[in-house]
Amino acid sequence: MSDLDDLRREKDAFFKRHPQSPLTPEQQRAFTGLSYYPENPALRLEVAVEAFESRDVVEMQTSTGDVQRYRRHGRFRFEVAGQPAELTIYAGEHGYFLPFADALAGRETYGAGRYLEPEPLGGGRFLVDFNQAYNPYCAYNPNWSCPLTPFENRLKVPIRAGEKVFPDATHE
Predict the structure, then answer these.
(1) H or E element: which one contains 6?
(2) Distance CA 96, CA 136 (A)
(3) Is 74:48 a contact under the CB 8 Å cutoff?
(4) Distances (CA, A) of 71 to 2, 38, 59, 146
(5) What would the mean pLDDT of 38-50 be, rounded to a whole number?
(6) Is residue 97 a contact partner of residue 91, using CB atoms and an 8 Å limit?
């Protein structure tokens, strides 16, 4: 068992039993666990982030029509199965934030995108581990308000790592 397996098991237990779970009580009763891609070491990246000179504040629309504000921190480039890609990291009041949607969004992954919290390593480098990509709480329950993935972070490549789409037919 890896650390990632332990984290996934803990998350499933939280979703199933905890009163602050994003699942409704009905969903919790039927919940048997989230669906994940197998761990993919090739998608655990240490990346050099090109910091933006002007760290503009952007307003991200949310799933409930509200707005959340973040600063555009920087951009990094990487490859997935030989295909080039780039993403923007944002800074918020709780740290760094990386919302993204991949080429599988709406089929294998949540249509509005998934999230990561990149870990700063110093010297303009970050750890971006797509194996830890997760669905926002609004993927499980429409009462949650979640930032929508900005256009600049919609990838044309598939990211087969992290959490898959939540297969609950009662919530689209």
Answers:
(1) helix 3-17
(2) 15
(3) no
(4) 34, 32, 9, 17
(5) 96
(6) yes
User: What is the radius of gyration, based on Cα positions, of the chain?
Assistant: 16
Q: Which residues contact 52 (CB under 8 A, 6 or more apart)?
A: 72, 73, 74, 75
55, 72 contact by CB (below 8 A): yes
Q: How many residues would you count in the chain?
A: 172
Instruction: Calculate mean pLDDT across residues 115-119.
Output: 97
Span 37-65, average pLDDT: 93
Q: In angstroms, rounded to a whole number, what is the distance separating the alpha carbons of residues 71 and 127?
A: 19
pLDDT surpasses 90 at 73: yes
What secondary structure, in 3-state letters, does 119-131 show? EEEECCEEEEEHH
Side-chain half-sphere exposure of 100, counting CA atoms within 13 A? 32
For the beta sheet containing 44-48, the strands, ordered from the edge strand earlier in sequence to the opposite edge, are 44-48, 125-129, 119-122
List of E strands, 40-145: 44-48, 50-51, 57-61, 67-80, 83-92, 95-100, 114-116, 119-122, 125-129
With 0-12 / 13-18 / 19 or more C-beta atoms within 10 angstroms meaning exposed / middle / buried, residue 127 is middle
Rama region for 162: left / alpha / beta (φ>0; ψ in -120 to 50; rest): left
